Amino acid sequence: xxxxxxxxxxxxxxxxxxxxxxxxxxxxxxxxxxxxxxxxxxxxxxxxxxxxxxxxxxxxxxxxxxxxxxxxxxxxxxxxxxxxxxxxxxxxxxxxxxxxxxxxxxxxxxxxxxxxxxxxxxxxxxxxxxxxxxxxxxxxxxxxxxxxxxxxxxxxxxxxxxxxxxxxxxxxxxxxxxxxxxxxxxxxxxxxxxxxxxxxxxxxxxxxxxxxxxxxxxxxxxxxxxxxxxxxxxxxxxxxxxxxxxxxxxxxxxxxxxxxxxxxxxxxxxxxxxxxxxxxxxxxxxxxxxxxxxxxxxxxxx
Length: 302
Description:
Blueprint: H1 9-16, E1 24-26, H2 40-49, E2 52-58, H3 65-75, E3 78-81, H4 93-106, E4 112-121, H5 129-145, E5 150-155, H6 158-167, E6 173-176, H7 182-190, E7 193-197, H8 207-215, E8 221-223, H9 239-243, H10 256-267, H11 271-285, H12 291-301
Helix pairs in contact: 1-11, 4-5, 10-11
């Protein structure tokens, strides 16, 4: 169990006094998605120009383990290996063996930072929860074995995920796209997790999510885009617009600063404070040492 560590006002002021060290980390970005096949390099370049020094690229099934690792090395990013709950209907027991083998083979790769994306989904109809739980439990065991944090998919499944974490404790991680209750949020935090917030925060009707973003301590939050998914309101295309022929809005990691500004406005703090605290939180959650500061700064400036 790793409790959140508060960052005092003096520490924030000291960090802000050195702007050359500032950068963003997109803690959840599916850069390997087919939506980026036509312009992937341009998307990553645009993010870099926006100050995104690092993207965390989580795998979703065994078939894209090599892809996310290659992309992370190509673009100077980091990655996680895991089996997403939405992919469990076509996953096989052999895929867990493959995951174990890949974690063993690449454990010394500093760009491998977590097991994920794993978790449970109670929202999509037709998914077998027993199968999801089997893969989730096995991945927690692998994360524990290889001493890695986990990146969790949390959708109408917080209590079940928490139960699994108590039965198989791991080295913390990130509860991605969190949208549970305040009580559930505090339980994840007590278990050493940071909570991911992204594009959904920009919607005026997301009242519960906005309450969480303001009531929880800033040192428990990380920012993400979940690109190409969960577009912020300025990229969202309504059902009526789609029926009229408009293309589905695509989220991209260069939206990080604007999403962060929304969090800063909701909390009544400076964008600089949000930037420093949330990027530090990602490094804490994923066990990334101070050496990553220089890497992120260089990536954001190139």
